[in-house]
Design goal:
With 281 residues, the protein is an all-alpha fold. It contains 12 helices and 2 strands. It has a single domain, classed as MetI-like (MetI-like fold, Orthogonal Bundle). The longest helix has 34 residues.
């Protein structure tokens, strides 16, 4: 009888955890996507592909495009802000204190942070009150319930998820390479683009994934500060789950999101494997 190695024994709890809380729920969602809506909600065990026809409807395609567009802009600005922030932290003498400041938002409930922004950007919020008091504007600005407020608050909530992986890569970077590039005649910009950025590529890719994928499924932020003009896929899924009780349709949309996420992760793993192979060579 073949003995079970200690390594396999250690992996059993993780395998069970992933199976119970990740694989099985995903399989349930995928299976529901091919079933029929029940009369009073729930599902009927009747196979159908009708649920995926929603991806041919112009209204839904508009929401899908808007979701992708917002997620792409959020990812761009988040990574753009995260790179210099992570660089500054990695080069600072107060790394631990600065990292604590980055992590502090996680100690506060997600909804409380959103409502804090509402109190800042609202018609009677801090920002409008400040601008009116000092005579900069005559009437409150419409800073909420639009695409801009969704992008701003999503960037704020996504920043820690981009900064931390970038910091872990930048901290290990050999900055003498940048100095060597400068000694060889490269400008600061050239050294940054040709030496620094390629060496932190894995951190950038991780930051992009950690930002783009959650943004695609965002629900609370568009619901609370987006209004009708900033409806995203997460809101459509929630509507079909709670209001219309069309679980198979919600599952079909979620299944496509899972597929897109899985493809993104596979691309990331392939890029990582190639970069590691090139480094070993």
């Amino acid at each position: 009888m073949k003995k079970i190695s200690s390594g396999n024994l250690y992996s059993i709890p993780l395998t069970l955890w992933m199976s119970i809380f990740f694989v099985i729920p995903m399989l349930i969602v995928l299976s529901y996507a091919f079933l029929t809506k029940g009369t009073y909600g729930g599902v009927q065990m009747i196979f159908t592909l009708k649920n995926f026809s929603i991806f041919l409807e112009p209204v839904f395609l508009k929401i899908l495009f808007r979701t992708t567009y917002i997620s792409a802009i959020v990812t761009f600005f988040t990574v753009l802000l995260a790179i210099p922030t992570a660089y500054f932290i990695a080069r600072s003498k107060f790394k631990q204190q600065l990292l604590i400041l980055i992590i502090i938002p996680f100690w506060t409930n997600f909804l409380i942070r959103i409502y804090a922004w509402i109190s800042i950007l609202g018609s009677n919020g801090f920002l409008n009150t400040f601008l009116i008091k000092f005579g900069i504007i005559d009437k409150p600005l419409s800073l909420l319930y639009n695409t801009g407020s969704v992008i701003l608050i999503t960037v704020y909530t996504s920043l820690p998820f981009a900064i931390l992986p970038l910091y872990s890569i930048i901290e290990k970077f050999d900055f003498s390479l940048v100095e060597a590039a400068r000694d060889l005649g490269a400008s600061n910009g050239q050294a940054f683009v040709k030496v620094f950025l390629p060496n932190i590529k894995s951190g950038i890719v991780t930051a992009i994934l950690f930002t783009f994928i959650p943004s695609m499924g965002s629900y609370a932020i568009p619901k609370l500060v987006g209004g009708t003009k900033a409806t995203m896929l997460g809101n459509v899924i929630a509507q079909h789950l709670i209001v219309t009780r069309n679980w198979p349709l919600a599952s079909a949309i979620s299944a496509v999101l899972i597929l897109v996420t899985s493809i993104a992760l596979l691309i990331f793993m392939r890029v990582e494997k190639k970069s590691k192979g090139a480094e070993n060579e």
